[in-house]
Amino acid sequence: MIGLRGGITVAIALILCAALALIAWGAHQAAERTIVPAILVKADRVGHSAVALIERAEAAGIPLDRMVGVAAYFDQLRAANAEFAMMELSLAGGAGARSGSAEGLDAPTVVRIPVMRDGAAAGELAITIDPSVVWQQVAAVLVDVAFIGVVALLVALELVALVVGTRGIEAVAAVEQRVRGLARGRLALYRSGAGSGAEELLDPVDAQVSRLGARHGAAYDAARARGDAALVARLDALAARTGIGDVEMGESRVAGAIRPALFLFMLSEELTRPFLPRLAQSLAPANGVIGPDAAASLPIVAFMAVVALCQIPFAGLSERLGRRSGFVAGALLAAVGYALSAVSEQYVLFLGARVVAGIGYALVFVSAQGHVVDHSQGAGRSAALAVFVRAIMVACLCGPPIGGVIADRLGPSAALGASSVLALIALGAALMVVPKVPRRAAHVAVGVGDLVKAARAPRLMALLLGCAFPAKLLFAALCLLLVPLELQHQGYSAAAIGRFQMIYPLLMVLAVPAFAALADRLKARAGFVVAGGLVSGIGALVVPLYPSVGLIVFALAMLGIGQALSIASQSALVADTAAHSGFSSAGVLGLFRLVERSGNAAGPAGAGILLAAAGFSVTTALMGAVVVAGAVVFALSGHRLSTPSGSRRATRAASSEGSPV
After folding, report:
1. What is the pLDDT of residues 561-620, one digit of tens each?
2. Distance in angstroms (rounded) separating the CA atoms of residues 268 and 47
3. Where are the alpha helices (DSSP H) in 65-198?
4. Taking phi first (over 0 means left), then psi (-120 to 50 degrees means alpha), and beta for anything else, what does residue 491 get?
5. Which candidate, 272, 290, 268, 403, places its Cα nearest to that of 347?
6. 263: which of 17, 124, 391, 455 fits an S-S bond (Cβ 3.0–4.6 Å)?
7. What's the burial of 346, exposed, middle or buried (CB within 10 Å: 0-12/13-18/19+)?
8. Beta bridge mates, 91
């Protein structure tokens, strides 16, 4: 049973896939009509230019059959035009020159240009077109179209709430929640869907469930009054099995209203991932104090450091401003930062623009997360936070390929301009769909003293420094700096780099729920944290064995699987520490977030320094070694790898707060 929302999603996907298939077919036909003729025209122009040069040399008194350097000249032309398989000059006397070979080509196309002498043909230049190169260019365009199509589908599904409206989404969710519950034999009463417009469907079901709960309660009271222990036990077992008499929280319409705006904003930052290191290198002074690799890392480090430092103080600021106003202010700051980045021609100005964008990003993140927490509770908070994280992860999937294509076709400045526009659209979406609520009195902000006290929690620092910090260190170093720079060095386009960067978030989206449930069922949260560190670290350690694109993909896949193994269990262990250690929960969770964000900043910084001295493979392996060593330290710290881990609900609630940034 896929549910009402699942059915709506499938229907939307089918409609969009059909439309995208039609677009892809049209793109293929257009490519055949445009790219192939364009290459033939190009070959004809290059050939006529070469023949004109040869004819001018002959007119200057150099006989055609005694010209030297013709083959070398043809080699240069072929190097600049990969689709030219062979260039051959044939003269009437049998002399000539040739570069390349046409052997093994399947149905090649030959462009022939005559060589004239005194108005008569003295030979010809034949340019053989390699059809495989032509179709590679066509295929590259189609791959871009296909990925943009997939991304368009994901974007459309994320923005359904803007089209249907949050009330409509809540109505569907409320109906689905009750249908699913009844199908499982659950008779709990759900507190969701009020005011959604689905009361005609919900009220009869809720009334009947309430009557059953009242009858169960009356029978239970009567059995206790009579002292009928057997009946009391049977009624307790019935309540435990069916939830009759319980009240469960459903998804909050107000909490979920921020999802489309959050998705659009996160998408604006993710657009920059494929080309940002390359752009930073191009802006850095040629004879500057720092090398090109450090120059590529510094804007990423500055952005991540600002996000890390602003997380805790901005939590209180967003409460004082109001979550909606905090989101709007942060999105506006980020849009200004992206716009400044787009027009910056000096490295220092570009660095400052990234700092401004980081401040805006931090304010948006804490405001959105605070909005979800403020307007949800219990199991409903778990569901709302899970939606919060899914919006971020889908943005991580969609952003890099889109940003890469824009940077390839229109340039990095255009891509940064698109980020600025997206941030402004997210601002507008927040104003449109997020309800304005009265400002809340700000809680006491987490201070340095709270963080210091939290650091004394038993075994917490082993978890944070052994697992949380290294995990973010490796993620930020590998995904944000090392892989984009290495693929750039190997000649990959920004669009291709963006497609590589989809591997990590795709595996996270698919695997995190399954691994979270499995860790809870096996009661082995600490074991999953250790396993995740070992898997992601080993994936990076093997890169030097045979540096290649295949092992880069392997390292990214192992990172995604490893973090999917550990992130939910890691967050749950921190939540358990916050709940049972006797220390301030806000201090424990604040310290956790600070350590994670510090890892995000330290990863590109360390990788940028090591890259110039040790190279890509060794730097990647060193980062992997840090993660493996941290996992081993945590395993030896006193945590039992298989322990009672509480309820499934706690795992979902804790894990839902994780994010790649």
Report:
1. 999 998 888 887 887 776 666 666 666 777 788 888 889 999 999 999 998 888 999 999
2. 45
3. 70-80, 131-158, 160-164, 166-183
4. left
5. 290
6. 391
7. exposed
8. 123
CA atoms within 13 A on the CB side of 285: 6
Q: Which residue has the tokens 């003293």?
A: 449
288-302: b (≥16 Cβ within 10 Å) or e: eebbbbbbbbbbbbb
Asked if 492 and 267 touch (Cβ cutoff 8 Å), the reply is no
Cα–Cα distance, 393 to 400 (Å, whole number): 12
Nearest Cα neighbor of 586 from 299, 312, 265 is 312
In whole angstroms, how far apart are CA 374 and each of 170, 445, 574? 18, 16, 21
- Helix then strand then coil, % of the chain, to nearest 5: 75, 5, 20
Give the position of tokens 């990095």. Answer: 412
How does pLDDT run across 175-222, given as a tens digit for each residue?
766 777 777 777 777 765 555 555 666 777 778 888 888 888 888 888
Instruction: Name the token pair of 277.
Output: 């290191």
Q: Do residues 294 and 612 make contact, with C-beta atoms less than 8 angstroms apart?
A: yes
Tokens 């290059």: give the residue.
46
Secondary structure of residue 249 in the 3-state scheme: strand
3-state secondary structure 443-482: CCCCCHHHHHHHCCCCCHHHHHHHHHHHHHHHHHHHHHHH
- Using an 8 Å Cβ cutoff, are 252 and 384 in contact? yes
**C-alpha to C-alpha distances, 154 to 13, 371, 494, nearest whole angstrom:** 9, 24, 21
- On whether the CB atoms of residues 483 and 557 are closer than 8 A, the answer is no
Position 115: which residue type? V
Q: How far apart, in whole angstroms, are the C-alpha atoms of residue 523 and residue 279?
A: 46
Q: Which of 476, 485, 504 is nearest to 611 (CA)?
A: 485
pLDDT in tens, 276-302: 999 999 998 877 678 888 899 999 999
| Rounded Cα gap, residues 126 and 95, in angstroms | 14
Angle at 317 between CA 313 and CA 323, to 5 degrees: 125
Query: Residue 286: helix, strand or coil by DSSP?
Result: coil
Structure tokens at 380: 């409903």
DSSP SS3 for 104:
coil
pLDDT above 80 for 651: no
Instruction: Write out 579-632 in H/E/C secondary structure.
Output: HHCCCCHHHHHHHHHHHHHHHHHHHHHHHHHHHHHHCHHHHHHHHHHHHHHHHH
CA distance 380 to 390: 15
Q: 176-194: buried (b, 16+ CB within 10 Å) or exposed (e) per residue?
A: bbbeebeeeebbbbbbbbe
CB 385 within 8 A of CB 656: yes
Say whether pLDDT at 14 is over 60: yes
Q: Are 468 and 567 in contact (CB under 8 A)?
A: no
Tokens of 72: 């070398």
SS3 sequence of 307-347: HHHHHHHHHHHHHHHCHHHHHHHHHHHHHHHHHHHHHCCCH
Contacts with 71 (C-beta within 8 Å, 6 or more apart), sequence order: 97, 98, 99
